[in-house]
């Protein structure tokens, strides 16, 4: 019988697979340390240098011109977690899951979720333009293909829930286009497509986005410390927090946990609330001299496709190759991003030729395949807010984005920065109510999928214990 994993085993692993985004660009902030030593005391301490932590730091220091001291601690290199390992696409849900959200939360909340993500893309476009962030940001279209009766039935329910919702603005609805039967197959270039839904999306270079934003924050006072994993976080009687690292301790007036899939390593109360789940992504380079092929991004079943301007393609998914034992043990409740199943790598071999008729005879080489650690909640909404009711005053969390962070993180981080500076409630950045941490969500958290895997694992019954 395998012993339960220790808490610290959920910290970022020392080694990792190499993502395209980190290998194919300069990383001036990779090993950055603003000061040789850690400060003894700070006003705000942010744990994590990904999109969430960067949003908090940038909005505090650059947008709000916060005058207090801000320290960011990163366990490995800058932006080496999920943000630097995603697919480089920014796809809002729009119609996706609309029927489910309406059934569970009502029409108004479902509308808020769809509208929030639509306008979130506009917000990040404005920030990139305003501050001149060079991150290869491109506006594109994403095509969702539905290939069989079950998928089409669900797609129809979602689409009609979306278009019939009176609380969704007309300007949001009008950007969603639907095609059927032969026209759907033609538009998508995907044989067998019965229904195709086309929505606007963004493509970007995630590391360049984060490093560009962080540099702006560094210019106005951010202290960034890489290779400084946090091992313990202890509330003090005076309302401050002692943060321990291998390099020493820091006393902080306020602490932000932007730790996503690694949260349980330092917040044991989140052991069953945010579970690490790994995903696999590959970069496919076309043979030199081939003409460019796909121009749109795609959402095929559980896979997503991001087409780069140079004709190369980034694909994430392959979930079915590791959703059952024994390979599931590599991917679920596991923060080691140095390994992934070879079955998934095989799945991505000749992927484009298998899925697009016009690419049947084109040759693509998978030059990078990597994995990253996401943080999943049981309802797949992030946990965002203050942790005072859990015995951690002046502590905040922004995590658990469940593999759908790009259209949700920016405003969530800004919401936290607003709480930190005590903005009036009427001026606090809006986020959907389903994002906010509360006692009910914490109490109801239950991962049926992992419990099912644990029950099925007769040989190693503790492998999936949360």
Automatic annotation (TrEMBL):
Which domain of life does the protein's organism represent? Eukaryota
One GO CC term, this protein? cytoplasm
Concerning InterPro entries, the annotation shows: FAD-dep_OxRdtase, FAD/NAD-bd_sf
What residue intervals traverse the membrane? none
Q: Where is the FAD dependent oxidoreductase domain?
A: 43-419
Which protein are we looking at?
Unnamed protein product
